[in-house]
Amino acid sequence: MYGGQLLPLFLENLPGFPTMEAGLYLMPRGIATFVSMSLVGRFSGRFSARSMICAGMLLSLAGTYEMIRLTPQAPGSVILLPMILLGLGLGLICIPLSSLAFATIPAGWRPRWPGCTAWCARSAPRSASRWPRPVSTTRPR
Asked: How buried is residue 39: exposed, middle or buried, by Cβ count under 10 Å (0-12/13-18/19+)?
C-alpha cells in the first residue's frame, strides 16, 4: 500500500508529467477509497468483516498486478484502472479491520481507548528525543 507514495515521483520524473497532471492521475484512488469507505457501512450487515477484508485484498492485488503495465513510455491513462482498484481495496480493508481491532479491546477500556491512543501519539515524539543519537564519524569544518 505504501509503495503508492512513490508514484508521484515516478510520474513526475520518468514520464515527465507536470505536478498537476500527476496529481490528477492519482486522484481516482482517493475518490474510490471515499466511495468504498462510504459503502462499507451498508455492506456490514450483509457480509462479514473477514469477507470484506478478503475482497479488499483481492482488489488491491488486482490493482497492484495492473501496475505491471506502467512503464515510462506508457500513457497516463494506464494508471487509472490500477488506482481505482487500489482505492476500492483500501476502503474495503481499513474500516472492517479497524472495527475488528476495536472489538478486541475489553469493554471497560473502550470509552478510554481514544484517550490512550492520543496519549501514545503525543508521548512518542518526546520519548524519541531521549533515544541515543548516532555518533557522527565526520568532523565538523
From this structure: middle
Rounded to 5 degrees, φ, ψ at 138 are -100, 150
- What grid cell was written down for 58? 483481492
Q: In which band, very low, low, confident or very high, does the pLDDT at 35 lie, cut at 50, 70 and 90?
A: very high
- Taking the C-alpha atoms of residue 26 and residue 9, their distance in angstroms, rounded to an integer, is 11
Measured from the Cβ of residue 138, the count of other Cβ atoms closer than 10 Å reads 5
| Rg of the chain on CA atoms, in Å | 20
Give the separation between CA 58 and CA 120, rounded to whole angstroms. 33
> How many Å apart are CA 59 and CA 91, to the nearest integer?
10
Average pLDDT score, the chain: 80
pTM score, two decimals? 0.72
Give, as one character, the DSSP assignment of residue 78: G
Beta strands in 48-137 (DSSP E): none
